[in-house]
Amino acid sequence: MRIVLLGAPGSGKGTQSQLLVKAHGVPQVSTGDLLRNAVSKGTELGLRAKAAMDGGKLVDDATVLGMIRERLKLADAAKGFILDGFPRNIAQAEALQTLLAELGTPLESVVLMNVDLKILFKRLTGRRICQDCGRVFNVYTSPPPSPPHGANCVAAPKLIQRPDDKEDVIGERLAVFEALTKPLIPYYRSLGLLRIVDADADVDTVFKGIETAVQSGALGAGARSGGGIRG
Ligand code: AMP
Predict the structure, then answer these.
(1) CATH number of the domain within which 211 lies
(2) Which of 75, 80, 111, 223 qualifies as a cystine partner to 1, CB 3.0-4.6 A?
(3) Model-level pTM greater than 0.90?
């Protein structure tokens, strides 16, 4: 499996990636996670990326492309990968095509996760992450159960909110998606790679939709409507 999950912030790319990892045994490659890791370690790259991330802007292409090149050359990516949050603009998509041609591992499909704007806001503003185990909860739709919820989380979960999930930054992230990432929809459609999945539904239904879209290669109904965010 060599796919891109394309979708607005909060469309569920991370959650679905994790299910796909379990089902297909290929790694999730999330540029957001790689960048957050660099920020928390205080590396030079992390320090460079932090301001853009906190403001909901894109980190510069050279930094992200350097990171993705290193990651896709690791042995585990030879059997496949799920790209989550990359590419985010046309320049990144073109660089990815070149890189994958060099590696001899072209993309099989690009799955656009189509989500209603109101649902998106709820997902983003409600998202909380357990500081101990990294599990993702949502205060509206999937609040954490009474502790313990994980093997290492015996105390009451310490839930943190990503700085870029604060309401003022969410607006900027959605604007960046509209302006820079949405042009990837016609780009991948023209390459015949685009599949569209209705991502408003519950996690399992969306997962089945992705599996079907990836396997059948059939275009979803939204393919003709432009897709991305509705509402
Ligand atoms: P995510 O976890 O995918 O929502 O990414 C969080 C933040 O990391 C984004 O708002 C950007 O600041 C940065 N980021 C993640 N992926 C990329 C990318 N492909 N290009 C540029 N910036 C990115």
Answers:
(1) 3.40.50.300
(2) 80
(3) no
